[in-house]
Amino acid sequence: MTDPGALMKWWSSLYSDHANLSNGITFLHLAGLIVGGGAAVTTDRQILKAWRAGGDRRRTVLDDVSAVHVFVVGGLILTIVTGALMMLADWDTFSRSKLFWIKMAGVGVLIVNGAVLGWAERLARQTSGSRGWPVLATVSTISLFFWLTVLGLGTWLKSVA
Length: 161
Hints:
6 helices; mainly alpha; Four Helix Bundle (Hemerythrin (Met), subunit A)
């Protein structure tokens, strides 16, 4: 069986010695964040506007929420995978960083929040919006906060690492 420590040392060396590889992973990390986070933030904004406006706008937004979900999840998966690769390239630094673990907790909140948003969207459809929309508005507000918080923490973490 392969020694995990040796594998991490090999990955760290490969990552740090090949700028094209590390730049490509960073690009994919940011692309996932832009696609997933951008779609989420845009949808969150639409949800909040529809919650206030009511009426037919809400039905249209619910359809958009369903359609956008694949981009948010895909972007988040890409960001998590590339983030794990970057973390493993400098495990000694990140494993001891409180800032890093706070950022990871924020990512965890985004994942749980996304699941709650899916549930709230279904609830809004089933109850003609009476029960789902207040939850959707709350979840969207949390989503906006945590997408921007995770982005800010990642930016700050880059200067610490």
